[in-house]
C-alpha cells in the first residue's frame, strides 16, 4: 500500500472510532434523560428510535447503515430493543403515560383539596371552641372580682383574703 492509502485508512479508522464514541455517549445521555424523567424520553414526543440517535449524535443519516458501522448499528438495535422492554419509547405509549400521570396528579390534587377543606373546618371548630373558652374565662373573672369585692366589704369579720401570687 502506498503512504496515501495508509493515511486514508488511518483517518477512516479514526473517524469510525469517533462516530462510535459519539453514538455511545449519546446513548448514555438518552438513558440518563429517560431515567431522570420517570422512564419517558423528554424529547421528540417521547419517541426513541435510530433516527433520534443519529440526530442527537450529529452524524449522517446513512452512517449507521454502512458496512463499516455494522457492529455499531447492531449495538444501537440491541439498545433500542432493551429500551422498549424497560421504558416507554413510542409516542403512543408516552401519550398514554401522560394521561395516566395526569389522572394520578388529579387524584392527588383532589385528595389534597379534601384534606385542606377538613383542615379549614377543624380550624373553624377550634376558633369556636376558643371563643367559648374565652367567654367562660371572662365570666369566671367577673365572678372572681365580685367575690373579692364582697370579701373586702366584709373585712371586719374573721375572713382574710389570700395573698395574690
Description:
The longest helix has 63 residues. This protein is mainly α. It has a domain of 87 residues. 74% of the residues lie in helices and 0% in strands. The chain is built from four helices and no strands. The chain is rod-shaped, with a radius of gyration of 39 Å.
Which secondary structure elements does this structure contain, and how are they paired or packed?
Elements: H1 3-36, H2 50-57, H3 70-86, H4 91-153
Helix pairs in contact: 1-2
Distance between the termini: 112 Å
Low-confidence stretches: none
SSE string, helix = H, strand = E?
A: HHHH
Largest sheet: none
| Average pLDDT level | 83
Q: What coarse outline follows from CA principal-axis ratios?
A: rod-shaped
Radius of gyration: 39 Å
Helix/strand-derived category reads mainly alpha
Number of strands: 0
Percentage of residues in DSSP E strands: under 5%
DSSP helix fraction: over 70%
- Helical segment count: 4
Amino acid at each position: 500500500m502506498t503512504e496515501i492509502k495508509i493515511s486514508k485508512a488511518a483517518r477512516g479508522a479514526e473517524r469510525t472510532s469517533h462516530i462510535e464514541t459519539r453514538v455511545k455517549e449519546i446513548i448514555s445521555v438518552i438513558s440518563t434523560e429517560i431515567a431522570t424523567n420517570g422512564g419517558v424520553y423528554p424529547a421528540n414526543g417521547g419517541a426513541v428510535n435510530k433516527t433520534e440517535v443519529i440526530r442527537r449524535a450529529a452524524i449522517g443519516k446513512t452512517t449507521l447503515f454502512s458496512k463499516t458501522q455494522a457492529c455499531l448499528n447492531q449495538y444501537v438495535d440491541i439498545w433500542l430493543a432493551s429500551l422498549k422492554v424497560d421504558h416507554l419509547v413510542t409516542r403512543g405509549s408516552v401519550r398514554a403515560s401522560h394521561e395516566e400521570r395526569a389522572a394520578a396528579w388529579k387524584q392527588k390534587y383532589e385528595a389534597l383539596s379534601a384534606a385542606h377543606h377538613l383542615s379549614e373546618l377543624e380550624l373553624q371548630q377550634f376558633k369556636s371552641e376558643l371563643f367559648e373558652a374565652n367567654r367562660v374565662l371572662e365570666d369566671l373573672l367577673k365572678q372572681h372580682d365580685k367575690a373579692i369585692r364582697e370579701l373586702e366589704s366584709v373585712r371586719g369579720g374573721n375572713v382574710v383574703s389570700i395573698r395574690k401570687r
